[in-house]
Design brief:
The complex is a heterodimer of chains A (277) and B (250). Chain A has a single domain (4-276), classed as Alpha-Beta Barrel (TIM Barrel), CATH 3.20.20. In chain A, 41% of the residues lie in helices and 19% in strands. Chain A has 9 helices and 12 strands. The radius of gyration of chain A is 18 Å and the shape is globular. With 250 residues, chain B is mostly helical. Chain B has 2 domains: 1-104, no CATH class; 127-250, Outer Surface Protein A, domain 3 (Alpha-Beta Complex). Chain B has helices spanning 4-18, 30-51, 53-58, 61-74, 87-95, 98-101, 107-122, 191-203, 209-216, 222-242, and strands at 131-132, 142-144, 148-153, 172-178, 184-189, 245-249. In chain B, the strands form 2 sheets. A 3-stranded antiparallel sheet of chain B has the order 1-6-2. In chain B, strands 3-4-5 form a 3-stranded antiparallel sheet. In chain B, a hairpin with a 5-residue loop joins strand 4 and strand 5. Classes of the chains: A alpha/beta (277), B mainly alpha (250). Chains A and B meet through helix 2, strand 5, strand 6 and helix 4 of A and helix 1 and helix 2 of B.
């Protein structure tokens, strides 16, 4: 059974709609913010996509780590959207994008601190209660720590364990962070609550300086990230895997080739695991 | 539950990204912080450039960049959906009088005009109701295309490509509407017709077409009233052909 999906971008819609069942990705992931309350042409495209593919949602604007209040009007719209398209997987980022009512549309790093853990755990519980479903939170890439009082893995683990949410493990982000902050990616993954991983992200990135990688989603996945992916799969149960490609699109067959490569790795690693079980 | 210090640090990071602060935030790497400011600036710049391609092409590069820069730093954009963020630039540009600052008197109208196209293009779908053609009966409640906006401009932005519109300040009315195939069209109207369409649309729920005409043209001489009624009927038939009126509600 196929495991690997593809992030939905408008630039890819024609290609995705033209694929046959044998070649199409297992599912499509989209950001609800880009589609909620949208009508007209793109609404029709979304309807066609939803008739062809299972959809998962990966949000951008929940701002779960923000010092501002949760935006319940927005969360209500997300819930309605999830219901309309029968979407059962909703994930978000362990970051924040808003303060003092100013939305920045980017993923800012949260201080790794105990009070931030408590603050976020409470908010996750509220969101999960309202949505009547567990959410998964993604370990985000970050370029500077912010007033940290605990390690990143302690921070993520505490939030996942205390809130009951799932973990969206972004393997590329682990690689990027390990490089940028000089730690061991394999060891870091071993410190996470891997039994709570419910979803995986894979993507490309861009090295912009000798000591800095930016998580762009604009390049192909590099070999080292594939290797980290392989070793990670040996440690977790089978879950959906997603390829993120947000811009700088190559020919579509190249994107499909990456999806297929991930599919082959997942099949190899997880079928072995099933045999052992 | 969040300590004041943590809250303050988080607020400082957002302010650093928005404003031209020095970035002296406790426990951060000064040499890396600027990446966030750059990434956020790019997100805003690209979204605004996509939404307002004509305004961007008319402004000088430094004017466009200043407008984007000021918008990020001075306007707290409380908007969860990125594609709706550019709408807020209209209000900000008016607050800051950019039309005067850049000596482009029609800038506010232009931003408004460009945004209306996006808004109408993406208006939330509404379930279609059953209608009857205007030609099939004498009277009924008009059913207007729900995806339309009537806008008033001080400058004829729709003639921008062909004319120097700075000298043409006046009252211009445009009906912007979405067709069945999803494309957006506009139609220039004179003031009388714009007002008539507005009234017909406004009263269509509570009054029939003929009742509305009686209401609108009340008190006029009967000859003039007959003439205007005929004009209104022909106008509505022509609007039906364009898909602006769907017919009489069934």
């Amino acid at each position: 059974m196929k495991q690997v999906g593809l992030g939905f971008r408008r630039d890819l819609s024609d290609d995705l709609l033209s694929l046959d069942t044998a070649t199409q990705p297992a599912f499509i992931e989209l950001a609800p913010e880009n589609w909620v309350n949208l009508g007209g042409y793109w609404r029709k495209v979304l309807k066609s996509i939803s008739e062809k593919y299972p959809i998962t949602c990966h949000g951008l604007s929940l701002s779960i780590g923000s010092p501002d209040e949760l935006n319940w009007a927005f969360i209500k719209e997300v819930k309605s959207f999830l219901k309309e398209y029968s979407i059962t997987i909703y994930s978000e980022h362990l970051s924040y994008s808003q303060s003092n009512n100013a939305h920045l549309f980017d993923l800012l790093p949260i201080p790794f601190r105990e009070d931030a853990v408590k603050h976020i755990v409470e908010r996750i519980k509220q969101v999960q209660d309202y949505l009547e479903m567990p959410i998964a939170l993604e370990n985000v890439s970050y370029y500077t720590p912010v007033a940290a009082e605990m390690s990143e893995s302690e921070f993520i683990s505490a939030i996942v364990n205390e809130s009951g949410c799932n973990l969206l493990l972004d393997v590329n982000n682990v690689y990027v962070n390990a490089f940028n902050h000089n730690y061991n990616a394999e060891k870091f993954i071993g410190q996470l609550p891997l039994h709570k991983v419910s979803y995986i992200h894979m993507a490309g990135h861009e090295k912009v300086a000798e000591d800095l990688i930016i998580d762009t989603h604009g390049q192909a996945i590099i070999q080292e990230v594939y290797q980290l992916f392989e070793s990670t799969l040996e440690r977790i149960k089978p879950v959906p895997v997603l390829l993120e490609r947000d811009f700088n699109f190559p020919e579509f067959h190249e994107i499909l080739s990456e999806v297929n490569q991930l599919e082959q790795i997942a099949a190899r690693k997880w079928s072995k695991k099933s045999e052992l079980c | 539950m969040l300590r004041d210090e943590t809250r303050s640090i988080q607020q400082e990071l957002v302010e650093y990204c928005r404003m031209n602060n020095d970035g002296d935030i406790v426990g951060t790497r000064q040499d890396r912080l600027h990446n966030y400011r750059r990434l956020i600036y790019t997100i805003y710049w690209e979204a605004l450039s996509d939404a307002y391609p004509i305004a961007k092409s008319i402004l000088k590069e430094e004017q466009w960049d200043k407008m984007v820069d000021d918008f990020i730093s001075e306007y707290a954009c409380n908007e969860s959906q990125l594609f709706r963020m550019p709408f807020h630039l209209i209000e900000f540009a008016e607050q800051k009088s950019f039309s005067e600052v850049f000596s482009i008197p029609y800038l506010s109208d232009l931003l408004h005009f460009e945004w209306i196209e996006i808004e109408v293009h993406s208006m939330k779908d509404i379930e279609e109701t059953s209608t009857l053609s205007l030609k099939s009966r004498e009277d009924g409640h008009l059913d207007f295309n729900p995806y339309l906006k009537l806008i008033k401009l001080d400058y004829p932005i729709h003639r921008l490509r062909d004319q120097n519109i700075e000298q043409l300040k006046g009252n211009y009315f445009l009906l912007v509407y979405r067709q069945k195939n999803g494309t957006v069209q506009y139609m220039e109207l004179n003031g009388f017709t714009a007002n008539l369409i507005e009234q017909l649309s406004l009263y269509s729920h509570d009054f029939t077409f003929l009742e509305t005409l009686n209401k609108v043209f009340k008190g006029l001489h009967s000859n003039l009233r007959d003439e205007l009624n005929t004009h209104a009927i022909n106008l509505c038939i022509s609007l039906e052909e364009k898909g602006i009126i769907r017919g009489f509600k069934n």
